Amino acid sequence: MGAIIKPAALRLGDLVAIIAPASPLPEQSYLARGTDLLLNHGFKVRTGRYIGEANGYLAGSDGRRLADLHEMFINPEVKAVFCLRGGYGALRLLGGLDLELIRRHPKIFVGYSDITALHLVFNQIGLVTFHGPMLYPELGGKNLSPYTLQCLLRALMVPAPLGSIPPAPGLPPAVTIFPGRAEGVVVGGNLSLVTATLGTPFEINTQGKILFLEEVDEPPYRLDRLLTQLKLAGKLEAAGGIVLGSFTYGTSYFYPEALEVIRDNLAPLGRPCFYGLPAGHLFAQATLPLGIRAHLDATACTLTYLETALMP
């Protein structure tokens, strides 16, 4: 990881951008509602020039999706970049990223799920990023959780340590997998995407870090395979601690079979670990800065940020 690069805090009146690095929208109303939400909260909005394109399961060609990303980062007026949605496609962009451009023009970058691929690379060059809601399905949805919105705005606008991630309403209590405490830089994201980078120049470095993982719609045997692959690659044992967000399957946000697989794979490692942080594919999700230090208390099931993610 390079020297830490913290973007400037977002302010009312700032210009924010929306790009589509992965899949296209299932329906365009999400873009309209999400844009209105950002406008109504005091921001100006610019969309990528190719944001409406679709190429099968991709939101346009790799070249055009990269062009939108690079254009928004190099534009000095843009202060934050929001991703339209996940799905699939961000991984395809990694080899074409101009990382020196990103490093020279740091700004807030928000997304999750498939966007994990970009978080991993941006964190490698030192840029602090934000694992948080996108226009689809959250910010452009008809029933946006107040918790999700409040956590997002605080994470992006307050240049002070976030402190402890608050519990989300309507979700079950978190569960200790292995007790203990750890302190380190938070890295990670979607389990499938973290695993997909293994053996590439972009694979995750977990040494002494707090590894955050979440997943969606993967049955138990696939979760087992993904965790086993990370374990065989030495990524789980290297971590100082592990915090797990939602492992959503069907209508269950923290389904019981996932807990069994998690316990079987992670408890024997002896690393502080808990399951149930309100982050991931959830109706109420916290925004997590990635690339800065936090304290993990797996006994109390808390994650507490120790430094600010933002410059004033």
UniProtKB/TrEMBL annotation:
The active site is at S113, E214, H281. It is an enzyme of class 3 (hydrolase). It holds the Pfam family Peptidase_S66C. This is Putative murein peptide carboxypeptidase. SUPFAM superfamilies: Class I glutamine amidotransferase-like, LD-carboxypeptidase A C-terminal domain-like. Its EC number is 3.4.16.-. It comes from Neomoorella humiferrea. It comes from the Bacteria. GO terms for biological process: proteolysis. Residues 16-132 form the LD-carboxypeptidase N-terminal domain. Residues 183-296 form the LD-carboxypeptidase C-terminal domain. One of its GO terms (molecular function) is carboxypeptidase activity. Belongs to the peptidase S66 family. The keyword Hydrolase applies. Keywords: Carboxypeptidase, Hydrolase, Protease, Serine protease.
